[in-house]
Design a protein that fits this description.
The chain has 13 helices and 8 strands. It is α/β, with parallel strands linked by helices. The longest helix has 20 residues.
Length: about 240
């Protein structure tokens, strides 16, 4: 598929970048499932996109498509009836049409502004029937579009995290110290506190430390590790106690 990244691919990228709207991905059957993944990948990497089922589109969901949107239509044969029936509406609205098809000379290919050839010699299916190789190539081309668009938009990990606040990357990049820190009932002692008072303060709130405060300012921190190391490394410390 890398060899297919020609001027048509560049034209598809420029078409999407130049439009103010979203990428509306449309596909039927297995192509529709691949289309849903392409739309989701674009949406999560900085290119506003959503999937429209062609059957539902012809029964009212065409209202979801604005003239400023780019239509990304997927059909291996280029003759899928549900896809072809949408073309007059898109032409009426003057939407830019990008076709992902295995037959550039098909009805879909002839009516699209940009055609990306995802044709294969045969399917992996032993009967050469079930969409396998063709859907894989379609997905590859869709991912290539999404990744180049992300690069052109200078999409950064922080941007990705904003769209994935529930994932590990989102937690890593978006969680602030203030979001997880303990703020109430902090263990506190004064510089003149006895050793027993210090230990009691550390044990009281199970944070493993106590804050040494003087005149409402932090003078230092004593941790349970400090105390263990004092016992372990200085015999005179025990005698003083």
């Amino acid at each position: 598929m890398a060899a297919r990244l020609d001027t048509a691919f560049e034209a598809a990228i420029q078409t999407i970048l130049s439009m103010q709207g979203r990428v509306v991905v449309v596909g039927m059957g297995k192509s529709g499932i691949i289309g849903q993944k392409i739309a989701a990948t674009m949406a999560s990497t900085g290119t506003p996109a959503f999937f429209v089922h062609p059957g539902e589109a012809f029964h009212g969901d065409l209202g979801m498509i604005k003239p400023i949107d780019v239509a990304l239509l997927i059909s291996n044969s280029g003759e899928t009836e549900e896809i072809i029936r949408i073309l007059p509406f898109l032409e009426y609205q003057q939407n830019r049409i990008i076709a992902l098809t295995g037959d550039p000379k098909s009805s879909l290919g002839c009516n699209a502004h940009v055609v990306l050839d995802v044709g294969v010699e045969r399917e992996a299916c032993n009967n050469n029937l079930a969409p396998t190789s063709s859907t894989t190539c379609t997905l590859v081309m869709g991912d290539a579009l999404a990744m180049v668009l992300a690069a052109e938009r200078d999409f950064q990990p922080e941007d990705f995290a904003r769209f994935h606040p529930g994932g590990s990357l989102g937690r890593c990049l978006l969680t602030r110290v203030a979001d997880v820190m303990n703020k109430d009932k902090l263990p506190v002692c004064t510089p003149d506190a006895s050793f027993k008072q210090v230990v009691h303060s550390i044990n009281r709130d199970y944070l493993g430390l106590t804050l040494v405060m003087q005149d409402n300012a932090l003078a230092g921190i004593i941790t349970d590790g400090n105390i263990r190391r004092a016992f372990d490394g200085d015999a005179d410390f025990i005698l003083i106690l």
